[in-house]
UniProtKB/TrEMBL annotation:
Organism (species): Hyphomonas beringensis
Cellular-component GO terms for this entry: cytoplasmic side of plasma membrane; cytosol
Name of the protein described by the UniProt record: AAA domain-containing protein
Tree of life domain: Bacteria
PANTHER family: SEPTUM SITE-DETERMINING PROTEIN MIND HOMOLOG, CHLOROPLASTIC-RELATED (PTHR43384), SLR0110 PROTEIN (PTHR43384:SF13)
BP GO annotations: negative regulation of cell division
GO molecular function: ATP binding; ATP hydrolysis activity
Length: 404
């Protein structure tokens, strides 16, 4: 069969998934032992060449443990040749290229190496639901757009950029499901800026990332009146320790399955999950300012991200808090800045301190407070620039937002 949803059932489609009918697996002895306690027919791929495994079991359900010889070749082969496959990956530390490959598959999930038999069964059930949903209503995962914002220097206005971009999409593409995720886990400001209730339960997510599903994610979302779902955690100086790679990747994976547009506000400092996230998102956006130290920091960060992303596309460089053109300040031209760092600057955002201050005091996006602000116009242009081809033309221009 060509569909992962059909193959997940195997020949015993009526059998309850509390006992997995059949699964092809390539894993270490401990995981294989756990798997055999809940599966009647475990097909061991250890004696099969990766290319043959892709051809023989592509489109079916596979359990793979990262680090076992041949697993990476199988995952990459499935992403290119058999994207309708469902893969349950076991790992505590996935490299960027494997995360990106998993996101291309029809259904995928990640379990820690410490996973027990019950965890495997629950993950298989979630994969089956995802595959069936994709078969009935289209592949939600493939249509999701995920952008990550990261500051080259502190105080560059990354949170404001992420917020305004998310609300600009909600305004432009009416009816679209938009989510804003604040990954500044210890001291994120998104909830304060928008007067959002921080609902993300980091201890629960960290303890069992594999248990996060659409229903639980919905419980952790704050719905802003302007139509954007906001995911933030309560401020906690120890929260960064709870943000494991498995937890954060699972959070973003489920968010991308449930929302059409996902915006990620990332911390500047390196976290265990920074590289996998920047390597997997559709756009990695570096936010900086037009000063010599900031430009050098932005150029260095952009080059690092470019290497990380490979053929997924270069990082976009945005200069924030630019002075209005009519004001004369000791600021050099953008074209000179580009020559200085030998890199294209993709967008500039005009500063509007008064509007930004009013917006955060009211818990609203700047576009609600001052819709004709140059900052709002610059963000809207940047969003149009990044939108996938054909989406901008479908934007609904009726009922434009007014100041409230």
């Amino acid at each position: 069969m060509s569909s992962a949803a059909r193959k997940l059932d195997g020949e015993a489609g009526s059998a309850p998934l509390r006992q997995i009918p059949a699964i092809a697996a390539l894993a270490g002895p401990e995981i294989m032992a756990q798997l055999r306690t809940v599966c009647r027919d475990v097909i061991d791929l250890s004696q099969m060449e990766p290319a043959k495994a892709v051809q023989a079991y592509g489109g079916a359900l596979l359990l793979l443990e990262h680090g076992v010889a041949g697993v990476e070749q199988i995952v990459l082969g499935l992403a290119m040749e058999q994207p309708d496959t469902a893969v349950l990956m076991v790992s505590d530390n996935l490299p960027v290229h494997i995360v990106r490959a998993l996101m291309k598959l029809g259904a995928s999930d990640i379990l820690p190496v410490s996973a027990q038999a019950s965890d495997i069964v629950e993950a298989v059930e979630r994969l089956k639901e995802t595959a069936e949903k994709a078969e009935q209503g289209g592949d939600v995962r493939s249509s999701a757009v995920c952008w990550a914002f990261r500051g080259a220097v502190g105080g560059a206005g990354v949170t404001t950029m992420a917020i305004e971009s998310a609300f600009a999409i909600a305004e432009k593409v009416r009816g679209a499901k938009v989510c804003l995720v604040d990954l500044n886990l210890a001291d994120g400001m998104t909830s304060s800026f928008l007067e959002a209730v921080p609902k993300l339960d980091l201890p629960a997510l960290s303890a069992a990332p594999e248990r996060l599903d659409a229903r639980l994610l919905a419980a952790w979302c704050y719905e802003h009146p302007d139509g954007v779902s906001v995911i933030t955690a309560p401020r906690n100086p120890d929260a960064d320790a709870l943000g494991s790679e498995a937890a954060i990747l699972r959070l973003l994976d489920v968010a991308c399955a449930e929302f059409q547009y996902v915006f990620v506000d990332m911390p500047r400092h390196m976290m265990p999950w920074t590289k996998p996230v920047l390597g997997a998102v559709d756009e990695a956006i570096i936010v900086s300012e037009l000063t010599v130290p900031s430009l050098h920091a932005a150029a260095d960060m952009a080059r690092e991200v470019d290497i990380l992303r490979g053929d997924a596309g270069k990082a976009k460089l945005v200069l924030n808090r630019m002075f209005p053109k009519k004001r004369f300040r000791a600021e050099f031209a953008v074209d000179k800045a580009e020559k200085a760092i030998d890199r294209k600057i993709d967008a500039t955002i005009t500063s509007d301190w008064d509007a930004a201050r009013t917006a955060v005091n009211l818990g609203k996006p700047i576009a609600d407070v001052k819709p004709k602000s140059a900052l709002v116009a610059d963000v809207a242009s940047f969003v149009d620039f990044l939108l996938p081809e054909g989406v901008s033309a479908k934007a609904n221009t009726t009922g434009r937002r007014r100041a409230k």
